[in-house]
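Dear colleagues,

As part of the handover before I leave the project, I'm documenting each prediction I ran so the next person doesn't have to rerun anything. This entry is a single chain, and its sequence is reproduced below.
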Amino acid sequence: MPVNIAGKTREETKMMRTLLATSLCVGLALHGIGPADAQSSSYPNKPIRMIVPFPAGGPTDSMARIVSDRLSTVLGQSVVVENRGGGAGGSIGAKFVASADPDGYTILITPGGALTTGPAVHKAAIGYDPAKVFTPVALLMTAPLIMSVHPDVPVKTVAELVAYAKANPGKLAWGSQGFGTAPHLLVEVLKLDNGVNLLHVPFRGTAPLLIALVAGQVQVAMDPTTTSLPHVLSGKLRPIAVTSKGRFAKLPNVPTVVEAGFPRLQNTFWLGVVAPTGTPAAVVSKLNAAFRDALAQPVARERLANLGAEITISTPAEFGKFLADELALWSDVVKAADIKVK
């Protein structure tokens, strides 16, 4: 009969392990601690996967890598960024996280596409209800969108863009980061409010969109400061407005959409983190605190500020309310603009 190195048979070893496990559970119960609590207290004890639901090179990817670097230091564990792009608003990556074990080792870092705008557009077909399959962890940061045109387009203001679009119906192409993203819905608002005919051209993320915009394959776009600012500063794109409440410090001469007379275009790019529903509250709380500590580090703050991002850490409850409000807002836009899934 096989014998283990401690001189016990396999059957005896198995019985001892069972007895030890039972004793541990009894001890935890006597102290009011359940298995999930015990697991949460040791979290994290292995690498964490941070899923980005967009291809590499976009604003979500670039900021996720800055965040993950500092988060690894705070938690004392590797935080691995994994790109899983595709689907409406990043729904492929979102569904991957939704179906993961709710243990805090697979989390989603995303803008609104996967949680609010995408579900608003694809309510029946997206394959998940974000309010049911995710638990909020934290809103991390926001950044203005820059409304830019290719330099060959003869406009310098949003009003001039609208006038030009009316005089040239269907000739201007508005590029977006994908069907069901906030910039896509903002062009629908512009079209709805002003009766203009713009061609919407969705791309698979920011990187291919900016390549096409700089090349003049599309003529107009809204994109976060974090990725479009270098092209604006180099003169490859002409900024005509920013979507923030106040003017963007790095482009002080560019008016806000409110100043330009188009208040319904006011919006910001935001980035938040969610985990699968069922993730222990203690793990969510620990993650929230870790993100707060990571983004308080001067190195992280400086790198994000250089991209035009403002750190705005929320509690899980605050982020949950924010998501509910955003979903209601964009659902109203989708209904009013009669946006149909193609």
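The chain has a mean pLDDT of 85. Strands lie at 48-52, 79-83, 106-110, 134-149, 173-176, 199-202, 220-224, 238-242, 268-276, 310-311.

All the best with the project,
I.
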